[in-house]
């Protein structure tokens, strides 16, 4: 297939004229990004966090079905899904000089219904509007449907320098994990038993129809 001719025809059809399109060595279109990655999606991006109450200590052993946090998708069947863009945890009330890891997972199938948020939860839209997502943040849930694959997305291996309160680690998920309606996105902090520092979570999600 002549990709150059195909693209030229599309451009002519939508009124852009018969300009030539520059292609790479393998026939790929060479594009220039004019806007930030999420500029057109921002009205559907939400930040969910809780910093108003005491955080949680890390999990010392392998995680299975008992994470520290679950972001529950309260949309009805056939409704919007939650797409995880990033997640983070911040040191809330002490200093930390012990390495931690941040892991996330998409819960398997429908989860136990969550109808209220953990104390101090804040949910805002990234575009500054009053829109709220159909999600609830639950602490210490028990996942149903089996043990999901846990994905490490960030870690701190610094065991010498103490971190100040509100120091944070953030991991990029870039949409690789999705929670359909009645499902959930799980988050946990992993660390040794000697780590008693308390951490507070935050999620950046897109709520979209898939």
Give your account of this protein's structure.
- This protein has 210 residues and is mainly β.
- The protein folds into 2 domains: 1-32, no CATH class; 42-208.
- The protein contains 1 helix and 10 strands; from the N terminus they run H-E-E-E-E-E-E-E-E-E-E.
- It has one helix at residues 3-13; strands at 45-50, 69-73, 81-91, 100-106, 121-125, 135-139, 151-156, 168-179, 184-190, 199-208.
- The strands form 2 sheets. It has a 5-stranded antiparallel sheet with strand order 5-1-10-3-8, with no helix packed on it. The protein has a 5-stranded antiparallel sheet with strand order 6-2-9-4-7, with no helix packed on it.
- The longest helix is centred in the N-terminal third of the chain and has 11 residues, at 3-13.
- It is globular and about 65 Å long.
- The two termini are 30 Å apart.
* Tally of discrete structural domains: 2
Helix/strand-derived category reads mainly beta
Number of helices: 1
Low-confidence stretches: none
The H-and-E topology, N to C, reads as: HEEEEEEEEEE
> What is the C-alpha radius of gyration, as a whole number of Å?
21 Å
**What percentage of residues falls in helices of 4 or more residues?**
under 10%
Q: In angstroms, what separates the terminal alpha carbons?
A: 30 Å
Summarize model confidence as the mean pLDDT.
Answer: 84
Sheet with the most strands, sense and barrel status: 5 strands, antiparallel
Give the beta-strand count: 10
C-alpha geometry: globular
């Amino acid at each position: 297939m002549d990709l150059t001719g195909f693209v030229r025809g599309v451009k002519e059809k939508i009124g852009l004229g018969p300009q030539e399109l520059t292609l790479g060595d393998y026939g790929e279109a060479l594009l220039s990004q004019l806007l930030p990655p999420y500029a057109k999606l921002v009205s559907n991006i939400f930040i969910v966090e809780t910093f108003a109450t005491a955080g949680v200590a890390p999990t010392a052993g392998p995680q299975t079905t008992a994470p520290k946090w679950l972001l529950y998708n309260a949309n009805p069947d056939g409704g919007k899904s939650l797409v995880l863009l990033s997640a983070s945890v911040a040191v809330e009330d002490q200093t930390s000089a012990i390495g931690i890891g941040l892991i996330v997972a998409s819960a398997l199938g429908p989860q136990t219904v969550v109808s209220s948020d953990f104390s101090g939860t804040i949910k805002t839209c990234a575009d500054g509007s009053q829109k709220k997502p159909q999600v609830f943040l639950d602490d210490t849930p028990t996942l149903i449907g089996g043990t999901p694959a846990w994905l490490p997305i960030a870690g701190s291996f610094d065991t010498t320098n103490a971190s100040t309160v509100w120091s944070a680690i953030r991991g990029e998920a870039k949409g690789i994990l999705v929670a359909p309606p009645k499902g959930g996105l799980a988050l946990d902090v992993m660390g040794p038993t000697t780590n008693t520092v308390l951490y507070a979570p935050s999620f950046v999600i897109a709520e979209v129809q898939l």
